[in-house]
Specification:
Radius of gyration: 23 Å
Number of domains: 2
Strand content: 25-35%
CATH class of the largest domain: Alpha Beta
Distance between the termini: 69 Å
CATH topology of the largest domain: 60s Ribosomal Protein L30, Chain: A
Strand order of the largest sheet: 2-5-4-6-7
Oligomer: single chain
Shape: elongated
């Protein structure tokens, strides 16, 4: 009985090499995928990388065009050492997150150029490209014949915003604004965030008015917000934020107990999640704090929140 064809879906930062017939698929925005096929054998490889070049401290080789592409070439040579038998394709690199960079499409363009450079240095012929543009792409690579199907992704406005946000966070650290009236608490929360992989504090604020200015200037991915603060309490500020400048917010407060009226009101006013600050045991070290706090910050950062309206 013939074996069913293997099917693999790649997430950002992943790659796959198959010795037999296989369909490898992925979704691309500014990210790039390189495919490698064999002239005679039904084997092949594909990657999905986010940024062009790794830095010396980064060990996640799947995320970067130089290390990821060199890795799949090396793995394919385990199947056939003769590199002249390989053919390559390059896909993706659209200008879908250009507002993050100094020039339109910079991330995508650099990814494309890196793929070309690594393949050229290896002596592998590029037989197909579908790169650039402003739309994301669905990629389906059949290792049996080396053919690639490409479908443009035309999203609704809301879906496009969600996809864009997730991709931009995937290509850099999650940026967190910490709002708390206690300098000591801010220091501890900031330490927990900055010591967590893929996260960084983009600012601190001691009250709602400082927070308002920093949200506008820094555009954080998520705000950690206390409730008991001078000038304006956190719930009132959250309500205004949800009405006029919606931003993912995680409430972190000693009065936000599980299933309490305060916790329910925070979610009604637009909070993505709520953390009881007492449970973090913030003065006893970072272990409990990071286990209970950081995952909620990470999940909230990937959310897209809408403007809310409230009865007077």
């Amino acid at each position: 009985m013939a074996l069913e064809k293997e099917r693999v879906f790649l997430l950002p930062g992943e790659y796959h090499v198959s010795r037999r017939e296989c369909e490898i698929a992925t979704l691309l925005g500014s990210c790039v995928a390189v495919t490698l096929s064999h002239v005679d054998k039904p084997c092949g490889a594909m990657n999905h990388f986010l940024l062009s070049q790794a830095n010396n401290s980064e060990m996640d080789k799947g995320r970067y065009g130089d290390t990821s592409t060199k890795t799949i070439i090396w793995l394919m040579q385990k199947i056939d050492p003769d590199i002249t038998n390989f053919r390559a394709g390059i896909y993706g690199g659209a200008a879908v997150i250009s507002h993050l960079t100094s020039s339109p499409g910079e991330i995508g363009t650099r990814n494309i150029e890196m793929a070309r450079s690594v393949l050229k240095a290896a002596g592998i012929k590029i037989i197909d490209e579908n790169v650039g543009g402003k739309l994301g792409k669905r990629i389906y690579f059949d290792t049996a014949n080396g053919k690639v199907r490409v479908k443009d992704i035309v999203k609704s406005g809301e879906a496009a915003k969600i996809a864009e946000k997730r991709e931009k966070i995937a290509t850099r650290n999650t940026r967190v604004l910490v709002v708390d009236d206690s300098p000591l608490v801010r220091k501890i929360l900031c330490e927990a965030i900055n010591s967590s992989p893929g996260m960084e504090v983009c600012g601190e604020a001691g009250d709602a008015y400082e927070a308002r200015d920093m949200i506008i200037s820094e555009e954080p991915d998520v705000v950690s917000l206390d409730i008991i603060m001078p000038k304006m309490d956190g719930l009132k500020f959250l309500k205004k934020l949800s009405q006029h400048f919606p931003t993912p917010v995680v409430i972190c407060s000693t009065i936000a107990k599980d299933n309490s009226d305060i916790s329910s009101k925070a979610k009604e006013y637009g909070a993505v999640d709520v953390v009881d600050k007492d449970k973090l045991e913030i003065y006893k070290g970072l272990d409990t704090l990071k286990a209970a706090y950081i995952p909620k910050i990470a999940r909230a950062a990937g959310r897209t929140v809408r403007k809310l309206t409230f009865d007077k």
